[in-house]
Structures are given as C-alpha cells and as structure tokens.
Design a protein that fits this description.
The protein is an alpha/beta fold. The protein has a single domain, classed as Aldolase class I (TIM Barrel, Alpha-Beta Barrel). It has ten helices and 16 strands. The protein has an eight-stranded parallel sheet. It is globular. The two termini are 29 Å apart. Bound molecules: ligand RRO. Ligand RRO binds next to loops.
Length: 308
C-alpha cells in the first residue's frame, strides 16, 4: 500500500500538509510544520516588503470554523528565501506562497524565487482581506494577464490558489484560462471572502478589520470546497493537479476530496485550532479508510466519485 502522491511531479509521502495562512509565518512555525507529520511545508503568502497585517482582533474561532482578516502579515520574500534552505533538513517538499500587492511586485518576487530553494510556487490570486484590493481570481481577464506575465518569468512549477466559485459559468471561464497556460496545479479553495459573524449578546462584530468582514473557513465551507475541486477536475487538463482545501477535519474528509479529484489536501482552520498533532491524526484516519476499503494507491480512488 502506498499513500504517496505528487503535485506537478514533486513527490509527497502522503497527501496531507498545511494551508498557507495559519501558523506558517515565522521560521519557528515553519520548522514546527517540518517536524510534524505534514507531508510538505508551505509558507504564509509573501509580499515584497514585510507586513504587520491588519489590526487585531483579526482571527476568531466560531462554532463551525473560523473567520479571519489577517491582512497578509508576513516577513517578506527576502526573509522566506533565507528561511527555505534551513527548512531542507526536514526532507519535505517546500512550497513558496506568493501574494504580491500588484503585478510588478509579483514579477519581482517570482524572479527572486527562481534561484530560491523551493520546489513549487503557489500564486495566491484570492486573498479576501486587503482593503481596496479585489480578489484577482474573480476577474478572469486579469487572471489571464497575470498568468501570462508570471509564467513567462518563472523557472519553478507554479500553481494558483483560487477563490471559491459558485456558478458553473464562472468555473468554465476560469478553467479555460487555466487550460490555456502552463499552470501545473491549482489549490481550491481560499476562505469564502467577506463573511460576517455577529456576537448577538454584545451586538457587535467579532473581528476588527473591514467592519467585521472576513474570510470564512472550517466546516462551513467544505461542501463549497468539494464542489470546486469536483468542477475543476471535470474541466481542467488532466496534467493540472488539484490540491483541495476547506473544512478538512478528518480522514474521511481527505478521502472525500480525493474522490472528488484532489491529489493532495491542505489543512487550515483545523491546524489553527488543534495545532500540529492534527496532521498525524488525520493521516492515520485516512490510512485506516484506505485500508478498510481495500485501496492500495491514491490514484485508484482519485476522481472516482460516482453520480446517482
Ligand atoms: O492574510 C490574510 O488575510 C489571508 C490571505 Br493572504 C488569504 O489568502 N486568505 C485568507 O483567508 N486570509
């Protein structure tokens, strides 16, 4: 039996690692992921310059998940480029998440990463929490242009992190753009942007930035995440790998994402809430399901979801 999988030709011992965002900002946090059972290490999305992010409180657990408006706090691409070789001692694939504040910044970061010690780049087209900056992934034309420019520069296998889509026509438009370019993988979904959670007793919002609006994560978003993985699995070229993300708390959740068409999955809210032990627990649960159902490889089950 093999739990191994691959993203853009990079081998992972098993399909479960961290999502860019929670607990992957500092070198210490990245080492903690390296020391955990996560099968790869992805950084917090990096910008050209360091950022403190939005005012606090900017993350809250809520009954079935989380809401955040972090505002891209990160140490800068220069720092992550210094951190990457230090993370090699964990012998895991290293993924740089990139979220420049404009196209020129993204180009500069991608150029700098060409000689950096990472295996993959995840270009984040879907941060919902920057004041005055809409999510690029909802603008098909702009996404097309960004991909054209970025893919002409990068020397690393590059994928994109997408926002959740809700209408079939939007899936089709974005899939046509992705199929046109040499995108190697997609990660879907980012948090569902601009959700609002209210504390009825206090008659107040619960996070400070943007009047309380923030990205929704956790159990709330699993069905939307599964739908995005499934739709893109149907629409994309088969050489574009899919990483599922959104509301994964158990081995059964991982199994569902792989049935829908994912080659790997990322843990966001559960990692924030339970810490790094979640990787080992969920990996064990997933292995148990594979064994119980008699599967001997990820490929045997990937995308095999049946319709009624
Ligand atoms: O830092 C954030 O506020 C953030 C980012 Br960059 C993102 O891509 N998704 C999210 O939920 N928060």
């Amino acid at each position: 039996m093999s739990y191994s999988t691959s993203i853009a030709g990079i081998k992972l011992q098993h399909p479960i690692f961290n999502a860019s965002g929670p607990l992957c900002v500092t070198l210490e946090e990245l080492h903690d992921i390296g020391a955990s059972h996560a099968s790869a290490i992805i950084t917090k999305s990096m910008t050209k310059e360091p950022r403190l992010g939005n005012p606090e409180p900017r993350y809250k657990d809520i009954p079935h998940g989380s809401i955040n408006s972090m505002g891209l706090p990160n140490h800068s691409c220069k720092k992550y480029i210094e951190y990457l070789p230090q993370l090699r001692k964990h012998s895991k694939p290293l993924i740089a998440s990139v979220s420049g504040l404009c196209l020129d910044d993204n180009k500069e970061i991608i150029r700098a990463l060409n000689s950096a010690d990472c295996d993959l780049i995840e270009l984040n087209l879907s941060c919902p929490n920057l004041v005055g900056k809409p999510q690029i992934g909802y603008d098909v034309e702009q996404s097309d242009n960004v991909l054209k420019e970025i893919l002409s520069i990068t020397k690393k296998p590059l994928g994109v992190k997408l926002p959740p889509y809700f209408d079939f026509v939007h899936f089709e438009q974005m899939a046509a753009v992705l199929n046109k370019h040499q995108v190697r993988f997609i990660t879907c979904i980012n948090s569902i942007g601009n959700a609002l959670f209210i504390d009825a007793e206090k008659e107040k919002v619960i996070i400070k930035p943007k009047g309380g609006f923030g990205g929704l994560g956790g159990h709330y978003i699993k069905p939307t995440a599964l739908a995005n993985v499934r739709k893109f699995y149907e629409l994309l070229r088969k050489d574009i790998d899919i990483i599922g993300c959104g509301g994964i708390y158990s081995g059964t959740d991982v199994f569902e994402f792989i049935l829908a068409g994912a080659s790997a999955v990322q843990l966001g809210t559960v990692f924030m809430q339970q810490g790094h032990t979640c990787f080992e627990r969920i990996e064990k649960e997933f292995n148990h399901i594979m064994h119980r159902k008699g599967y001997t490889s990820i490929d045997q089950m990937k995308g095999t979801l049946r319709e009624l």
